[in-house]
Structures are given as C-alpha cells and as structure tokens.
Design goal:
This protein is an all-beta fold. It has strands at residues 3-9, 18-23, 30-34, 40-42, 56-59, 68-71, 77-78, 83-85, 87-92, 97-99, 103-112, 118-127, 131-141, 149-151, 155-160, 165-174, 181-189, 194-196, 203-211, 234-238, 247-252, 255-261, 267-273, 281-284, 293-296, 299-303, 309-311, 321-325, 334-338, 343-347, 353-358. Strand 5 (56-59) and strand 6 (68-71) form a beta hairpin. The termini are far apart.
Length: 372
C-alpha cells in the first residue's frame, strides 16, 4: 500500500510500540499491533476512515490512560476507544458429590457476548490437590482460537470474536486420599485494551463433596485394580512402608507377598520367601522401632521402616495361626501361636521371644485360629 509515513506508539497499552500507517489519497490508514517480539499483525477496522492522512501525533487527550490521536486530515481528532466485550464462563459437571477413585468430567464454556471482538484472553485453571490425571480437549466456534488438547490445568491465550465460544471437556480423577470437598476454579482475563462489561462472570468455581464410598460402608464391591496371588491364606491391611497409605501383606504358599500402595491404588509387589507353607500372619511393631513387622506361622519378619522385610534371627516354632497382643502389659507385643502346641511367647521388647506358656493341657491339644 501507499502511505504518508508511519507513527509509533503503544496503541493497545501492552507496553510495546505499535504502528499507525498513514494512508495515501483514498487508501485506508491501518493499525499494526506489536506482539512484543517485533512481529506486527493488522488490527482490522481500527481506523475506519478512508481520508488521506498527512501527519499523526499521539497523546492521552481524554486522560483515560491510553493514546488518542490527532491527524492532519478532514477529521482530525480520534479517541482511542477500549473494546467493549462481555467474556463469560460457565461450568457444569452434573454432580454434587464424588467418590474417591471416581472419574469426573467438567464442561467449561468461554463465550464473548460482545459487542466487540477480543483477542489475547488469558484462561487459567486452578486444581484442587484432590484431583489428579487432569487432561482436556477443546472445540471452538464462531472463529475462536484454542489449542486442541492438553494435560494438566487449562492455561492458554485465546481469541474470541463476537458470539464465539471455546468449549473445554476436562477429565480428572479423585485421589483415594481426598477428604471433605474437591474444587476447581477458572478465570478469564481480558487484555488492558478491552473493557469487560460484566467482569463478575469472568471467574467461576465448582465444588463437590467427597464421599469415601457410594454406600457409606454398608456393602462392598470387588476392586479390579489388584489381583492377589490365588493361594493367599491370610492378609493384613497396614501401612507397611510408612508413607501414610494402606498397603497389603499376604501369607502365600512360599512366604510373604507385600503389595505397596502409592496412594492412588497402584500396587508394587515384593516377595519374601521361606520354605514351607505360610498358614497365617499378624502385623504389629514387634521390636518397637516405629514400623510394622510381620509375624507368620513360620517365624518373624522385621521391617526396616520402608516396607522391606528381613527374617528375624530368633526362631519360633511352626504354627497353624498366629496373633500379636500385649499380654503381660509391659508395652510390647507378645505372640500367640496356634497349633498342636498352642502357646504364648513373651517378647523382651526387642522382638526376641523367650518365655513359653502352654495354653492346652499337656500341650497335646490343638488350637486353630488366633487374631487378637
């Protein structure tokens, strides 16, 4: 295009220099906006006149903080007008409560009701710590721009012509440790050069109550996330690795199977072998070092504090079942061994069992199952 020169100024108030190109004769003058890196894009219809412009000066004539313009033309005075927009957010997940472990899906809609177009709208999402595995997709309409998908919180800059929308489908999962409520919030920030007519609908949040089970403990359903060994004869639910969540310790045919939970019901299995069938087990802090040890029908296993077990050097007789309890009220756990010689073994506080008390006359009877 022919021009009568260019004048630089921060037309859109974003801190960098934009350009006004003065039109020659019947050629329309144009405004080009700088993205801050020296790349300019045409701002359509920013200057609607086709009059010849010979000279331009910028200044804040109306005292509103932006650059107005006086030109050497038939219409000399031009006021920099903020775009009037109405960017609104709605959200719906169709729920009032969630259950730990559930998947949840949010539908987020961002719309510009005008009357002017707006670009550089910054969208942000805040995610409650009770939500994980967050991922999203988007669909645009009316000339809006958006990324097609992403992982984690929504965070992008979009353009919204009048009547345009971006609809986000956001999927997440409720962690098993979630309590009370889970919340997510969204905000839309319009650029400084735009005036939002109703800024109250630029931020929205969604909150759901967290339930621990759909039946509040009245019934149980199988959980498909873990398959235990088929020959497990006994199991205990304890925090074996000391990380604050519940793990699984099982007695299996050739030893102990420990399933460590990462807090999201993802389990890592470790095996600890000892010849002969393990008929039963019980768990507790036998050596009083602050972690959970495992007493089995074929001996004691001591925990190193992170869920790794080592066989105790102090032997115990083979039993059909076992139990742990402080039977002599001295602050440590004693052992009850069931079987042909059902007996109590008294703990010295370090995990060494020394005294033996027979529970059945002549120790010739049989006691089957113990769990104290």
């Amino acid at each position: 295009m022919f021009s009568n020169g260019a004048t630089l100024g921060d037309i859109d108030g974003d801190g960098d220099l934009d350009a006004f190109i003065a039109g020659y004769s019947l050629m329309r003058s144009e405004v080009f906006l700088n993205d801050g890196a020296g790349h300019f894009s045409q701002h359509i219809n920013a200057y609607p006149s086709t009059e010849r412009v010979d000279h331009v000066s910028f200044g804040d004539l109306d005292g509103d903080g932006d650059l107005d313009m006086i030109t050497a033309s038939a219409t000399p005075l031009w006021i920099n007008k903020d775009a009037d927009v109405d960017v609104a957010i709605t959200i719906d997940d169709g729920r009032t409560h969630v259950v730990v472990g559930d998947e949840i899906q949010y539908t987020l809609t961002v719309t510009n009701f005008g009357p002017d177009d707006v670009s550089d709208v910054v969208l942000s999402q805040g995610i409650d710590e009770g939500l994980t595995d967050v991922r999203w997709t988007s669909v645009t309409s009316g000339g809006a721009t958006s990324e097609l998908s992403g992982e984690g919180a929504v965070g992008e800059t979009v353009s919204l012509p009048v009547g345009a929308s971006v609809v986000y489908t956001i999927d997440a999962r409720i962690i098993f440790k979630a309590e009370g409520t889970v919340e997510t919030w969204f905000s839309a920030q319009v650029p400084a050069r735009s005036h939002d007519l109703n800024p109250r609908d630029n931020r929205i949040n969604d909150t759901n109550a967290v339930w621990q089970s759909t039946t509040h403990g009245r019934s149980f359903a199988p959980e498909p996330v873990l398959e235990l060994e088929g020959d497990a004869s006994d199991s205990s639910l304890v925090d074996i690795d000391g990380d604050g969540d519940i793990d699984i310790v099982s007695a299996v045919s050739q030893g102990i199977a420990v399933y460590r939970n990462d807090g999201f019901m993802n389990f890592t299995r470790s095996s600890y072998g000892r010849s002969g069938v393990i008929a039963g087990l019980d768990t507790g802090d036998v050596d009083r070092d602050g972690d959970i040890d495992v007493l089995t029908s074929r001996g004691l296993w001591l925990n190193n504090g992170i869920g790794q077990l080592t066989a105790s050097p102090y032997p115990l007789p083979v039993a059909t079942n076992v139990g742990l309890a402080d039977l002599d009220s001295d602050g440590d756990l004693d052992a009850v061994l069931g079987g042909a010689q059902a007996s109590i073994y008294v703990n010295d506080g370090s995990g060494r069992f020394s005294s033996r008390l027979c529970l059945v006359s002549s120790c010739g009877g049989s006691v089957g199952s113990w769990r104290v």
